[in-house]
What does this fold into?
Amino acid sequence: MRSQLARFAVRRVLSMVFVLFAVSVLVFLIFNVLPGGDPAVRMAGKAHTETQVEAIREEWGFDEPLYVQYGTMMKKLFTGDMISYFTEVSVTEEIRKGAPRTFALAIGAAIIWMAFAIALGVYSALRAGRISDRVLTVLALIGISMPAFWLGAILSYYLGYKAGIFPNGGYVEFLVSPTEWLWHLILPWFTLSILFIGFYSRVLRSDILETMGEDYVRTARAKGLSERRVMLKHVLRNSLIPIITLWGLDFGAVLGGGAILTETVFNLQGVGQYFADAIGQLDLPPIMAVTMFGAFFIVIFNTVVDIAYAALDPRIRLEGGSKA
Amino acid sequence: MSEAGRVPTLLEVHDLEVSFNTEDGVVRAVDGVGLELKSDEVLAVVGESGSGKSVTALTMMGLTRGPNASISGTAHFEGTELIGASDEELRRVRGNRMSMIFQDPMSSLNPVYRVGAQIVEQIRAHRDVSATEARQRAVELLDAVGIPDPGIRVDAYPHELSGGMRQRAMIAMALSLDPSLLIADEPTTALDVTIQAQLIELLRKLNEERDLSIVLITHDIGVVAEIADRVAVMYAGRIVEQGTLDEVFYDPQHPYTWGLLGSLTRIDRPRPDRLPQIPGMPPSLLEPPVGCHFRPRCPHAFDRCQSVPDLNTRLPEAPAHFDRCFLSPEQKRERREVGDGT
Amino acid sequence: MTASRDEEILGSPGTEFSLDAPAELAHDPAERPGLGPWRLTARRLRRNKMALAFGVVFIALVAACLAAPLWADNVAHTSAEENHLSDTIVLDGKTTNVVDLLGKPIGPTWGGEFFLGADGNGRDIMVRLLYGGRNSLLVGISAALGTILMGLVLGLLAGYSRGPVDSVISRAMDVLWAFPVILLGVAIGTVLAVQGLELGPLTLESDSLLIPILIISVIYIPYLARPVRGQVLAIREREFIEAARAQGMGSARIVFTEVLPNVASTLVVFLPLMIANAILLEAALSFLGAGIQPPNPSWGTMIAEGVERIISAPHLAIVPGAMLVLTVLSLNVFGEGVRDALDPRARVRIEH
It folds into this structure.
């Protein structure tokens, strides 16, 4: 058992390192091999001379072979010395500023979407086929059919600008004012959550209905357990497993850049928005750093999910490698 | 026979009807079933899948109740009327005085809980005992049903046990509150032949040693021969023949029973694990045939079979042997000899 | 852990179950033997009126977008790109500027020209909506088909050949899976939008629709390739494959005649939901400037422009957004109906 766990840990860590390495190489190649990627030309501005470009190339080391450039970039990434090509501001510093905002958005939204999804999914399953279930089904499907940035803009316009209930975007530090912090995050949280509430509640509903047809639920009733206990301990316990694993994967994805649209629409100045701002100028260092930041969380949460899954379902054994 | 009157009746079912509303229409799964079970008796209910035998059993337990089911009739069990009982009354009976085990022991146990915990859960649902006590009882039960190392297996997850062990664990769970009735719904169907024999042996032992009455639902005639005191044969929602094991096996009265028994007489050949072939398909319970349900497949059908035969005694020498066929006893004897499984 | 969980989450062959009647009864009357799985699916789908209704809505939306030139030429008398900044039209007997002096465009006239109003450049929104729909739908449908084709080939290859080919493909899928989807799309999209792409004989203009199509279809490959691979791995072990091999069938033939029909249901379930998600991703990419490039209209670019001017002219954001939601919703409802009819346990997890 212990050696199995150790093998899992070792293989998994190796696999994560490989994936992160591959992601970084891919990003680097996108910006250096595809046309339009030559940063020196862009940095020199619209009206540039060949000499200016050459000077920039030399100064920033763009004349070095690609693998040297890649090596330098990764070294800077890990030492925290990376700076933007254009603003020359420290990338590490920007991410350090943006990360708490992204975390606040992602964590709050994850709690909201899970709570709503469980409530609605359970309710819908218990009323399967009735009017209330149908209404919830339609709402859930509308929820997964809306682009987050559009929904965010509409909510922000009607509830923020027009009705004046919520602030019109922006972020306030928790330590500056907890109530303002909360007030500024409510619309972004729900904007980000709608899709997941819709999707998870549908998944949970169908899992509950499926589980209610399982033989072991019939056994639980045959044992003379109360209906409440049958539903909680046997039906819900087992049907929550899939959405808990989804939750982990999606939380990782949201931390890892999935909130870029919501951050941008509400001007939260998180890591995702930092990426969105950098992409317009094809500013590789922030792009590389944010992508690695995101990939890191995605990979970590993939592993967390596998461990959680094995803990929740004793039939699953942890094996090495990643989940392919 | 003379003694039979003194043995108390444990379960008495009359005119049980169960139908389900489905998308395609109303399915009459059980159509006027009556059963009687004495204390310490093993009653085998035999029939093909879809004959309504499982639905009958599940209905006793209240497990067919639902918005799409309509259930009528009576079922008296130890002074409780099961069909009319409230959900809460029924909950207190099941798992306590009356237990049930099912066909597939893999899917019948919750995969995410340890076997012992699932037994403890049942004990504590009915008795106010401590978790430690209940666990101790679970170990004893696992031991009693022949699970080796019960002290270790009590903490095993279902998937860590073999099929036979799982079914033994199910039986242990069913016995945890010393019920007077065990309903076993195809308990051996999903298992290997050798394991089947061991489990039937276990059920017989429990029947003898623990005064446990058993209703055994099966399509396996061989199993019936080994354990049953009395037999009820079901076809398309109705009981077509009922009597003691000997009566039904050695003097079968209904043409459907002849077909069922057809292969059993050939002890020189391996027993097929499915029912012997009777030409044709069981009828759809959405639109059952008029009159005798077996009529479309019956080579002996005649005009009267357009109406439903009662479940009657038709043999003066065997007052407890019932059947649902219009043929006279003489006709039956004659045709059975000719058509008998050869 | 791995194939097992993916299958559970992402879809596996499932069985119908009935909540109310015990299984033996539920199956028998409703599903007589002899009804093939596809006929059965068609039968179940026919009963799902809501799914069918939304299927019709989607077809109507596609038809409307295809008929864009009819509306443009005969009703609106303008094109998708034509500006009418200094034009006036007669509304309720009054002459009105299409775009007033403060830059505020007119709202819906609900008739003929500027049926749904004008945008900041005085372009007819209705016309742009229809032409933009063509682009959005074209990108969405092509990208979904591209994903299905590539995901299917990779999934089949990985699952059927196993060994090193499987390792390489699976590692690649891991990398793609770990990539923050939208960051990857935005990065490639923006780079290509600057200058287009020249790969040997293949030249892509920077505003070519092929760029978002390619990006979206590549990004979503793992979402299909993984479940297909898992299914193929499972199918490989089944007896009929053994039998086919014993008969001397070659690998390619086995894949086409035995394996492919068995993963077909996954593909069918995937297609409408994939189109829906591709349309949404196109919109997201366009919003971040990495999708369809202006002045090409698309619902995504129209929403992006609308969001910027939402305070002065909210209809600029609402109209294309509502159209997009209606389209995606119709695909999702119809797709769910298909899934319920064909393979109720299948799950398609897609981010956007």
In short: Residues 103-178 of chain B form one domain. The interface with chain A takes residues 58, 61-63, 87, 91-96, 99-100, 102, 104, 107-112, 121-122, 125-126, 157, 159, 170, 173 of chain B (CB under 8 Å).
